[in-house]
Amino acid sequence: MLKETDIVIIGGGPGGLASAFSAGREKLRILIIERGEELGGILQQCIHPGFGLLYFKEELTGPEYAERWIKEVEKINNIEIWKKTMVLELYPDKKLIAVNDKGLWEIRPKAVILAMGCRERTHGNLAIPGTRPAGIFTAGTAQRLVNMEGYLPGEKILILGSGDIGLIMARRLKLEGAEVVGVVEKLSFPGGLTRNLVQCLEDFNIPLFLSHTVVEIKGRERLEGVYIAPVDSYGNPIISNKRFIQCDTLLLSVGLIPENELSEIAEIPIDNKTLGPFVDQFLMTEREGFFACGNVLLVNDLVDYVSFQGLIAGECAVKYIKGVIKRERKIPININGNLRLVVPQFISYPIILPEITFYFRVSEPKYNSVLHLKSGNKIIKTWKYPIVKPAEMIVLKINSSVFEETDNITFSMEEK
Amino acid sequence: MDVIIIGGGIVGTLIARQLSFYSLRILLLEKESDIAMGATKANSAIIHAGYDPMPNTKKAKTNVRGNKLYETICEELKVPFKRNGAFILAFNNEEIKMLEELKERGKRNGVMGLEIISRDELLRREPNINCEVKLALYVPSSGITNPYLLAISALENAWENGVEIHLEERVCNIIKERNGYIVETNKNIYFTKYIINCAGIYADEIIKMIESNSSFKIIPRKGEYYVLDKKMRNLVHSTIFPTPTPISKGILVVPTIEGNILLGPNAHDIEDKEDKSTTQEGLKEVWEKAKKLIPNIPFSSVINTFAGIRAVSNYKDFLIEEFNSARGILHFAGIDSPGITSAPAFAEIAEEWLKEKENLRLKKNFKRERKKPLYFRELTNEEREELIRQDPKWGHIICRCEHVSEREIIDYIRHPLTPKTLEALRKRLRVGMGRCHGAFCTPYILRILSEELGKPVNFFTLKGGKSKILNGENKMRWRYAKRD
């Protein structure tokens, strides 16, 4: 079957909702395609507070944050929402094939917004030695089981990885009555936000084992325990110092991977640092007419950033359809020093937007750093950071005029 | 019973199917929660050509015969099979000599089409191979399949023809009677005229039950593997072998029939027949040796690791015998590589063996072919559209990585031969076998199982026994219990 529309948004999580909201203000036909049973994506299972401090200036739970956006989007007549619908194929010419219980749909929109979010790295990705029993879950799956399905995954739980979901699940499972024996982190510094370390671990006396990792999984049918060992400065486990921790459940919070399988089918170039598409200030990918926002673009710390990106992608998709975006030339954004990644990765001219929001992540935690913005060798601007951490994104809004008269832009994070 | 088959691996299931065409009462006993739980589940999934075994051995004969039978058997049972060819690489003069020897041996075994090809020709066909390679032996008849799916399909076919199947039933003792044998299991006692021992790594223990002074012994040999994401499907198209050593065919790079890539296996003798754990050193060994064949493999493409156990024995060849002291029992023991390739030939051997003893009559309405189940991911868009019109559940995709619909899951849960475990569904449908490893679909599958079977979500197991997926109680009940 054929479906007529102007913009297709793939994914009805916070990124997709915000992009629909901003694109929907113009009288274009917009279609949100959501795989799950409800809009809001992973927010619906994040029943803890801490969402919306930047965007709404108040503290909301995940479902509350989602609900605000869903209400706004549902008010807009020209936005159509398809749930329980999955995109099977996406082509470079923007044709896409989707399936739901009505049938198979062929859609040829004028612009596509990629908002597929991310998935969790799994036990299989880590290649942890040992057996393969029941009782190993990603933290997000456990979160869904506990918060939405109403079941505990197990009774004695160890968490590998100190990412935010892992920390939040440590507290959540403790509150539900399970015993949480600890959180194990391979790096010498925690992966999650400071507020989660305090509110989820310290407040509940849950131990955090830094510079440790799980080196072996034990148990034939159900998990019986794991061996953990300290790691040396190169990250290699010191097996001779391993020790056994009895547990019936291992949760993994070891990183998120943007879900760009569809982007790859559509031959959209992917940045191997962000694992998301290369984009310009419009959040338009190298393939024109495709936009990306949220965790499919880069893994964000805060949902508020996802929403901000969604708003830009939606607004710019409309501009693209109206022919406002030209992309007459483009220049790359270079990064060096302690910076690991940047979004957007390049700027298209004419810039059009009054300001550009940059997202950075650093490689290592450092005190007293400075971030220079350089044009060639000339420092144009400098920001000071008393402390930077890989877990916390650096977000900068910069006036576009800075970029008008240059063709060589570098951000450099250096020690003072 | 007329025939009891002990063991539901590829050997037992293919024999059960072959015998199911005849008017026989057949029972297959499997000790695990599902069939294909041992070596049939965890192996390289290669259909070997047969250049490797020593001429005139049972290994050589059954390997070459089995390889020839694969096209037909996979066609009849609707299991994917592909002759993707293999290359055996030589990196130095000694290995080049070995290639010549293998080519010669292959010819004597009756393997067709073996050809030594130049480095340039090899790199033209498989550009990702380490360019330090000198020469390669090309083996066109080497193939790939899905062995556990073949075993499952063979048993479904056998079941349609009337074979009885008992899962979670372990043979504890065999007692010789005048006209047959009494077989005692953990659940029942049977009388049978014939027994076929296909017990894999436990085949030696079955032999000991009736031949207590037998010196035959199985020494489990573990092999570890990596599975790579389907994104890597273009890494190689043929199976890539190093030059073999006396203990094993070496660590390979193999495309799977589903489009993933396997790296492995190594080979280490172990004590414990159930020790399917991977090890730090073992995985490291596999990774390093695989990189010698194909240098550019990104670690981020790994989606899983596993280990399998080969039933290596102290008898150099396959042991395919009926002992004089216990007529009526046919043993297939010490079935290590190329056991999967040889299995269809074993089925022929078992059939001939029984024909010599009994006047076998074909059943009137037996089926050689299995009806192919429909898989959403294999259908054309037109076929999908038609199915969704008939039943909207075809349009509800539960497993996003492998594109499995709700309808397929429900159909397999309802199939009488499917154990109601997560792993049984994975093996039959690939649901949860993709890159997210079931992180997204597990809660949905548990819900479907629960709705279909009327049991709570925390009732279900990964693979039977104590492998409960959710160890905790239902949250609400748990909380009330604590309050008391």
In terms of topology, how is this protein built?
The complex is a heterodimer of chains A (416) and B (484).
Chain A: E1 2-3, E2 7-10, H1 14-23, E3 30-33, E4 49-51, E5 60-61, H2 62-75, E6 79-82, E7 86-90, E8 96-100, E9 103-107, E10 111-114, E11 118-120, H3 123-126, E12 136-138, H4 139-149, E13 156-160, H5 164-175, E14 179-184, H6 194-201, E15 208-209, E16 212-218, E17 225-230, E18 243-246, E19 249-252, E20 256-258, H7 261-265, E21 290-292, H8 303-321, E22 329-337, E23 339-343, E24 346-349, E25 355-362, E26 366-375, E27 378-388, E28 394-399, H9 401-404, E29 409-415
Parallel strand pairs in A: 1-9, 2-3, 2-10, 3-6, 10-21, 12-19, 13-14, 13-19, 14-15, 22-29
Antiparallel strand pairs in A: 4-5, 7-8, 8-9, 11-20, 16-17, 17-18, 22-24, 23-25, 25-28, 26-27, 26-29
Chain B: E1 3-6, H1 10-19, E2 26-29, E3 46-47, H2 58-77, E4 81-82, E5 86-90, H3 93-109, E6 115-118, H4 119-125, E7 135-139, E8 143-145, H5 147-160, E9 164-166, E10 171-176, E11 181-185, E12 189-192, E13 194-197, H6 203-210, E14 218-228, E15 239-241, E16 252-255, E17 261-264, E18 268-269, H7 280-293, E19 302-313, E20 319-321, E21 329-333, H8 339-357, H9 381-390, E22 397-399, E23 404-405, H10 406-414, H11 422-429, H12 442-453, H13 475-483
Parallel strand pairs in B: 1-2, 1-13, 2-9, 5-15, 13-21
Antiparallel strand pairs in B: 3-8, 4-8, 5-7, 6-7, 10-11, 11-12, 14-17, 14-18, 14-19, 16-17, 20-21, 22-23
Helix pairs in contact in B: 1-5, 1-8, 2-8, 10-12
